[in-house]
């Protein structure tokens, strides 16, 4: 499922216009992104938690040349599923 499929499904199930649902979905994604940029967690009880994690620097290899390269430390987004979501997917 992609973003358009999600918007279409919600629109049909809830009887809302696609434009309204798209605005809400875009707003939700923007708020989650902004919170993660500030280092905050976004938690939906039962569904899961969006957070950032620090990835330490490491040495990697260029697959074409086999040459070692240094990969700098970075901050990456992460999602940890909640119990209700895990149980629903079982």
Compact description:
The protein is of the alpha+beta class and 90 residues long. Helices cover 43% and strands 30% of the residues.
Molecular structure report:
It comes from Pseudalkalibacillus berkeleyi. Keywords: DNA condensation, DNA-binding. The protein has two domains: 1-40; 44-90, HU Protein, Chain A, CATH 4.10.520.10. It is 43% helix and 30% strand. The protein contains three helices and five strands; from the N terminus they run ααβββββα.
Per-chain topology:
Elements: H1 3-14, H2 18-37, E1 42-44, E2 48-55, E3 58-61, E4 68-71, E5 74-81, H3 83-89
Antiparallel strand pairs: 1-2, 2-5, 3-4
The spatial strand order of the largest sheet comes to 1-2-5
Please estimate the helix content. Answer: 40-55%
In the residues, how many domains can be counted? 2
What characteristic shape results from the CA principal axes? elongated
Intertermini distance: 19 Å
Which CATH first-tier class of the largest domain would you pick? Few Secondary Structures
In the CATH hierarchy, the third-tier topology of the largest domain is known as HU Protein, Chain A
* CATH superfamily (homologous) name of the largest domain: IHF-like DNA-binding proteins
- Beta-strand level of the residues, as a percent range? 25-35%
Number of extended strands: 5
Structural class, by secondary structure, is alpha+beta
Keywords:
two-stranded antiparallel ribbon; elongated; 2 domains; HU Protein, Chain A; 90 residues; single chain; alpha+beta
């Amino acid at each position: 499922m992609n973003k358009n499929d999600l918007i279409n499904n919600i629109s049909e199930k809830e009887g809302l216009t696609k434009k309204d649902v798209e605005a809400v979905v875009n707003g939700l994604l923007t708020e989650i992104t902004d919170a993660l940029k500030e280092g905050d967690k976004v938690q939906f009880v039962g569904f899961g938690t969006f957070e950032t994690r620090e990835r330490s620097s490491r040495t990697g290899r260029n697959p074409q040349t086999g040459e070692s390269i240094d990969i700098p430390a970075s901050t990456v987004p992460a999602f940890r599923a909640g119990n209700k979501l895990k149980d629903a997917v079982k």
